[in-house]
Specification:
223 residues; alpha+beta; Ubiquitin-like (UB roll); 2 domains; two-stranded antiparallel ribbon; 6 strands
Length: 223
Protein backbone atom coordinates (compact mmCIF):
# COMPACT_ATOMS: atom_id res chain seq x y z
CA UNK A 1 0.00 0.00 0.00
CA UNK A 2 1.18 3.51 -0.80
CA UNK A 3 0.32 4.73 2.68
CA UNK A 4 2.98 2.52 4.27
CA UNK A 5 5.84 4.33 2.53
CA UNK A 6 8.36 6.16 4.72
CA UNK A 7 8.77 9.66 3.25
CA UNK A 8 12.05 10.04 5.15
CA UNK A 9 13.61 7.77 2.53
CA UNK A 10 13.33 10.60 -0.02
CA UNK A 11 16.18 13.11 -0.34
CA UNK A 12 14.72 16.56 -0.89
CA UNK A 13 17.01 19.36 -2.08
CA UNK A 14 18.14 22.36 -0.02
CA UNK A 15 14.75 24.00 -0.68
CA UNK A 16 12.86 20.93 0.48
CA UNK A 17 11.84 19.99 -3.06
CA UNK A 18 12.35 17.20 -5.56
CA UNK A 19 11.25 16.67 -9.19
CA UNK A 20 8.30 14.38 -9.81
CA UNK A 21 7.58 12.91 -13.24
CA UNK A 22 4.10 11.77 -14.27
CA UNK A 23 3.89 8.95 -16.81
CA UNK A 24 0.72 7.50 -18.33
CA UNK A 25 0.26 4.05 -16.81
CA UNK A 26 -1.25 2.65 -20.02
CA UNK A 27 0.67 4.28 -22.86
CA UNK A 28 3.97 4.90 -21.07
CA UNK A 29 3.99 8.48 -22.35
CA UNK A 30 5.74 11.03 -20.13
CA UNK A 31 3.09 13.64 -19.33
CA UNK A 32 4.66 16.31 -17.15
CA UNK A 33 7.28 17.23 -14.58
CA UNK A 34 6.63 19.31 -11.49
CA UNK A 35 8.04 19.59 -7.96
CA UNK A 36 6.99 18.05 -4.68
CA UNK A 37 7.83 18.74 -1.08
CA UNK A 38 7.23 16.35 1.79
CA UNK A 39 3.68 17.59 2.35
CA UNK A 40 2.60 17.29 -1.28
CA UNK A 41 4.13 13.80 -1.47
CA UNK A 42 2.19 12.86 1.64
CA UNK A 43 -1.03 14.16 0.10
CA UNK A 44 -0.30 12.25 -3.09
CA UNK A 45 0.14 9.06 -1.10
CA UNK A 46 -3.01 9.54 0.98
CA UNK A 47 -5.37 10.75 -1.77
CA UNK A 48 -3.93 8.86 -4.77
CA UNK A 49 -4.12 12.14 -6.71
CA UNK A 50 -0.96 13.95 -7.76
CA UNK A 51 -0.15 16.96 -5.56
CA UNK A 52 2.76 19.31 -6.14
CA UNK A 53 4.42 22.40 -4.72
CA UNK A 54 4.45 25.53 -6.88
CA UNK A 55 7.80 27.28 -6.74
CA UNK A 56 6.37 30.46 -8.28
CA UNK A 57 3.27 30.69 -6.09
CA UNK A 58 4.92 29.17 -3.01
CA UNK A 59 1.95 26.92 -2.30
CA UNK A 60 0.66 23.38 -2.61
CA UNK A 61 -1.55 22.48 -5.54
CA UNK A 62 -3.46 19.43 -6.71
CA UNK A 63 -3.24 18.74 -10.43
CA UNK A 64 -6.78 19.18 -11.75
CA UNK A 65 -8.12 21.24 -8.85
CA UNK A 66 -9.28 23.97 -11.25
CA UNK A 67 -9.29 22.22 -14.65
CA UNK A 68 -10.67 18.87 -13.56
CA UNK A 69 -7.72 17.19 -15.30
CA UNK A 70 -6.63 15.08 -12.36
CA UNK A 71 -3.76 12.61 -12.34
CA UNK A 72 -4.95 9.50 -10.51
CA UNK A 73 -1.88 7.76 -9.15
CA UNK A 74 -1.49 4.04 -9.83
CA UNK A 75 2.04 3.53 -8.53
CA UNK A 76 5.13 5.46 -7.45
CA UNK A 77 8.85 4.76 -7.69
CA UNK A 78 11.92 6.71 -6.71
CA UNK A 79 15.30 6.61 -8.42
CA UNK A 80 18.64 5.17 -7.30
CA UNK A 81 19.61 8.44 -5.56
CA UNK A 82 16.17 8.75 -3.91
CA UNK A 83 15.85 12.33 -5.17
CA UNK A 84 13.30 11.96 -7.99
CA UNK A 85 9.81 10.45 -8.03
CA UNK A 86 8.23 8.66 -10.99
CA UNK A 87 4.45 8.32 -10.88
CA UNK A 88 2.42 6.00 -13.08
CA UNK A 89 -0.90 7.79 -13.47
CA UNK A 90 -4.30 7.53 -15.09
CA UNK A 91 -4.87 11.04 -16.45
CA UNK A 92 -8.33 12.57 -16.56
CA UNK A 93 -8.00 14.84 -19.57
CA UNK A 94 -4.84 16.49 -20.92
CA UNK A 95 -1.90 16.90 -18.57
CA UNK A 96 -0.62 20.16 -20.06
CA UNK A 97 -2.21 23.55 -19.38
CA UNK A 98 -2.04 24.19 -23.16
CA UNK A 99 -4.55 21.40 -23.70
CA UNK A 100 -2.10 18.86 -25.10
CA UNK A 101 -1.88 15.35 -23.72
CA UNK A 102 1.73 15.83 -22.64
CA UNK A 103 3.78 18.88 -21.73
CA UNK A 104 6.63 17.44 -23.80
CA UNK A 105 5.46 18.36 -27.29
CA UNK A 106 8.34 20.61 -28.41
CA UNK A 107 10.74 18.50 -30.47
CA UNK A 108 14.44 19.07 -31.01
CA UNK A 109 15.69 18.11 -34.47
CA UNK A 110 18.61 15.70 -34.14
CA UNK A 111 18.72 14.69 -37.78
CA UNK A 112 16.63 11.53 -37.63
CA UNK A 113 14.27 11.24 -40.59
CA UNK A 114 11.50 9.53 -38.64
CA UNK A 115 10.76 9.18 -34.96
CA UNK A 116 10.48 5.52 -33.91
CA UNK A 117 7.07 4.38 -32.74
CA UNK A 118 7.15 2.48 -29.46
CA UNK A 119 4.74 0.01 -27.84
CA UNK A 120 2.88 2.92 -26.24
CA UNK A 121 0.88 3.19 -29.46
CA UNK A 122 -1.10 0.14 -28.33
CA UNK A 123 -2.18 1.92 -25.14
CA UNK A 124 -3.14 5.03 -27.11
CA UNK A 125 -5.23 2.93 -29.47
CA UNK A 126 -6.96 1.21 -26.56
CA UNK A 127 -7.96 4.57 -25.09
CA UNK A 128 -9.56 5.52 -28.41
CA UNK A 129 -11.42 2.20 -28.53
CA UNK A 130 -12.80 2.92 -25.06
CA UNK A 131 -13.95 6.36 -26.22
CA UNK A 132 -15.76 4.85 -29.20
CA UNK A 133 -18.23 3.24 -26.81
CA UNK A 134 -19.90 6.65 -26.61
CA UNK A 135 -20.01 7.19 -30.39
CA UNK A 136 -23.00 6.59 -32.65
CA UNK A 137 -22.72 3.35 -34.67
CA UNK A 138 -23.26 5.27 -37.91
CA UNK A 139 -20.22 7.46 -37.23
CA UNK A 140 -17.66 4.86 -36.18
CA UNK A 141 -16.65 1.40 -37.40
CA UNK A 142 -15.70 0.39 -33.86
CA UNK A 143 -18.96 1.71 -32.43
CA UNK A 144 -20.83 -0.30 -35.05
CA UNK A 145 -19.02 -3.45 -33.91
CA UNK A 146 -19.94 -2.70 -30.29
CA UNK A 147 -23.58 -2.27 -31.26
CA UNK A 148 -23.62 -5.61 -33.11
CA UNK A 149 -22.47 -7.42 -30.00
CA UNK A 150 -19.80 -9.81 -28.83
CA UNK A 151 -20.65 -12.46 -31.42
CA UNK A 152 -19.92 -10.15 -34.34
CA UNK A 153 -16.61 -9.05 -32.80
CA UNK A 154 -15.59 -12.69 -32.32
CA UNK A 155 -16.47 -13.36 -35.97
CA UNK A 156 -14.12 -10.55 -37.00
CA UNK A 157 -11.33 -11.90 -34.79
CA UNK A 158 -11.69 -15.34 -36.38
CA UNK A 159 -11.85 -13.82 -39.85
CA UNK A 160 -8.69 -11.76 -39.32
CA UNK A 161 -6.88 -14.77 -37.83
CA UNK A 162 -7.66 -16.73 -41.00
CA UNK A 163 -6.41 -13.90 -43.21
CA UNK A 164 -3.20 -13.70 -41.18
CA UNK A 165 -2.70 -17.44 -41.60
CA UNK A 166 -3.01 -17.10 -45.37
CA UNK A 167 -0.73 -14.06 -45.53
CA UNK A 168 1.99 -15.69 -43.45
CA UNK A 169 1.94 -18.80 -45.64
CA UNK A 170 1.76 -17.41 -49.17
CA UNK A 171 2.17 -13.62 -49.12
CA UNK A 172 5.02 -11.19 -48.45
CA UNK A 173 6.06 -9.66 -45.11
CA UNK A 174 4.25 -6.38 -45.80
CA UNK A 175 0.94 -8.17 -46.23
CA UNK A 176 1.63 -10.30 -43.15
CA UNK A 177 2.20 -7.17 -41.05
CA UNK A 178 -1.00 -5.66 -42.45
CA UNK A 179 -3.05 -8.71 -41.45
CA UNK A 180 -1.30 -8.97 -38.08
CA UNK A 181 -2.29 -5.39 -37.26
CA UNK A 182 -5.87 -6.14 -38.31
CA UNK A 183 -5.94 -9.09 -35.92
CA UNK A 184 -4.41 -7.13 -33.05
CA UNK A 185 -6.88 -4.31 -33.66
CA UNK A 186 -9.92 -6.56 -33.45
CA UNK A 187 -8.62 -8.40 -30.38
CA UNK A 188 -8.26 -5.00 -28.71
CA UNK A 189 -11.85 -4.20 -29.71
CA UNK A 190 -12.84 -7.48 -28.06
CA UNK A 191 -10.88 -6.56 -24.94
CA UNK A 192 -12.55 -3.16 -24.73
CA UNK A 193 -15.99 -4.64 -25.37
CA UNK A 194 -15.57 -7.03 -22.44
CA UNK A 195 -14.29 -4.23 -20.22
CA UNK A 196 -10.91 -5.85 -19.65
CA UNK A 197 -8.46 -3.04 -18.98
CA UNK A 198 -5.40 -3.31 -21.18
CA UNK A 199 -3.24 -3.05 -18.06
CA UNK A 200 -4.44 -6.57 -17.22
CA UNK A 201 -3.03 -7.78 -20.55
CA UNK A 202 0.30 -6.09 -19.82
CA UNK A 203 0.31 -7.56 -16.30
CA UNK A 204 -0.18 -11.05 -17.68
CA UNK A 205 2.73 -10.58 -20.10
CA UNK A 206 4.81 -9.40 -17.17
CA UNK A 207 3.79 -12.40 -15.06
CA UNK A 208 4.90 -14.78 -17.80
CA UNK A 209 8.12 -12.94 -18.61
CA UNK A 210 11.14 -15.04 -17.72
CA UNK A 211 9.03 -18.15 -17.20
CA UNK A 212 9.39 -21.20 -19.40
CA UNK A 213 6.42 -21.56 -21.72
CA UNK A 214 6.20 -25.24 -20.81
CA UNK A 215 6.21 -24.46 -17.09
CA UNK A 216 3.62 -21.72 -17.56
CA UNK A 217 1.25 -24.05 -19.38
CA UNK A 218 1.76 -26.81 -16.80
CA UNK A 219 0.85 -24.34 -14.03
CA UNK A 220 -2.60 -23.69 -15.48
CA UNK A 221 -5.59 -25.50 -13.92
CA UNK A 222 -6.71 -28.55 -15.89
CA UNK A 223 -9.93 -28.03 -17.82
Amino acid sequence: MLLQFDIDKIKFDSHGLMPAIAQDSVTGEVLMLAYMNAESLGLTLSTRKAHFYSRSRQKLWCKGETSGNFLNVKSLRYDCDADTILMAVAPVGPACHTGTVSCFFNKIDIGEETEPVGPGIVGKLYKILEERKNEAPDNSYVASLYSKGLGKILEKVAEEAGELDEAARVKDDKETVHELVDLWFHTLVLTAKKGIGIEKIFAEFDRRFGTSGIDEKNSRPTK
